[in-house]
Amino acid sequence: MGSDRRDPPFGGSVVFLLMNLPLGVLAFAALTTFAAAGVGTAVVWVGVGLLAVLVLAVRGSARLERARVYALLDRYIDLPYLPLPAGGQKDRWKARLKDPSTWRDLAYFFLLFPLGIVEFVLVTTFWSTSLALAGLPIYFRWLPDGAYYFPSYDVRWLTVDSTVEALPWAALGVLFIALSVALTKALAGVHARLANALLGTTVAQRRRMERWWEDAEEKNLVAR
Predict the structure, then answer these.
(1) What is the largest CA-CA distance in the chain?
(2) Which end of the chain is more exposed for a tag (fewer CB within 10 A), N or C?
(3) C-beta of residue 70 within 8 angstroms of C-beta of residue 76
(4) Taking a C-beta distance cutoff of 8 angstroms, is the pair 96, 59 a contact?
């Protein structure tokens, strides 16, 4: 079960959202490369080993992602995995592949790339616009011709060439900063809920885990 905190910290939200694009690119490249190589060479058994490495890497990376969500967004995500059976490697691999959490981990990392693009574009666009407007009374004099032209240098619908004229733009920038803070926290909160939905435990899994632990306790009592 994830944390009930609804409002993730602002600083952690900024860092988290900006990290998602490079991590998403890395995850997508690794997943597609290993999956393609594994499927393509499965007939000579080399691919089976590559796919096994992929499964282990996905489950391990999902653990790191849960830790990242907790460290930056203050949202705790429960581990959804049942303990592996005590039998041989064949039984353990069957358990990993039959576990829905393995495939939900895989889906999360495939989605991280497109989500990272959307989040990165929104965050950088809103914050660059907000800070540019808020700081206009300070830096407009160092722009070409000592003035700011809206919407561009070549298309001059409005000209700002004095501090007084820049103040309304700065006020608009302050408003945009407030909107950017709200947007940043909202995006981080939505991503945290998605992470909890894909990387956390479902109701059915929690019931399975409760039954598993109850059975394990009964076996321990019988053994004593």
Answers:
(1) 87
(2) C
(3) yes
(4) yes
Phi/psi for 118 (5° steps) reads: -60, -45
Q: What is the C-alpha separation between 116 and 118, in angstroms, rounded?
A: 6
* Residues whose CB falls within 8 Å of the CB of residue 149, separated by 6 or more in sequence, listed in order: 155, 156, 157, 158, 159, 160
Under 8 Å between Cβ of 81 and 101: yes
Q: What is the pLDDT of residues 147-159, one digit of tens each?
A: 888 877 777 888 8
Closest CA to 115 of 31, 216, 23: 23
Q: How many CA atoms lie within 13 A of 204 on its CB side?
A: 4
pTM of the model: 0.84
How would DSSP label each residue in 145-176? Answer: GGSEEEE-SSSEEEEE-SHHHHHHHHHHHHHH
Residue 181 predicted with pLDDT over 60: yes
pLDDT of residue 2: 46
Distances in whole angstroms, Cα of residue 157 to Cα of each of 115, 128, 146, 148, 153:
36, 21, 16, 11, 10
Residues 78-98: pLDDT tens digits? 988 877 877 788 888 888 888
Write down how long the chain is: 224
Q: Which of 151, 148, 132 has the alpha carbon at shortest distance from 140?
A: 148
Residues sharing a CB contact under 8 Å with residue 61, sequence separation 6 or more, in sequence order? 27, 105, 109
